[in-house]
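Give me the fold.
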Amino acid sequence: MRLLLYLAVIAVVVAGLVWGAEGLRDRGRRLRSRDRGRMIDQGSLADAAQAMATAPPPYLAEERASLAYGLDRGPGWLRLSPSQLVFLADSGRVVLLDRLDVVGVGSTRELPDRTLSRDVLVVTTTDQVAYFAVTDPERWVRLLG
């Protein structure tokens, strides 16, 4: 009987340690970049951003796209709202670009590390450059311009 009591106490302690470690890990995930044009890592803040990014319109445009360059490149959704350009990667990562910070929009085949066979959308903000593979980059240039 005493052994069962000890096992129950040990189980509660281990569960508390695991729960505490999960909480610390979630708190440790922070914004990767500066205030504007931020990359949000997974965690509670990313959950809020993902909820905003997956909400139904008022999006001015929406398209299945890929982030064509960078550590986070891969498929996802590109959405344009009146105030932001939002890329929601299939991995859960969210890239937010404030439209007020956009200083340049265009299309190119030249990426910093390679040349592509198709044009991609290039969005330049005050502190970063993002490359998005979309079906019609010129349409997005018009929408953002």
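The first strand starts at residue 39 and ends at 40.
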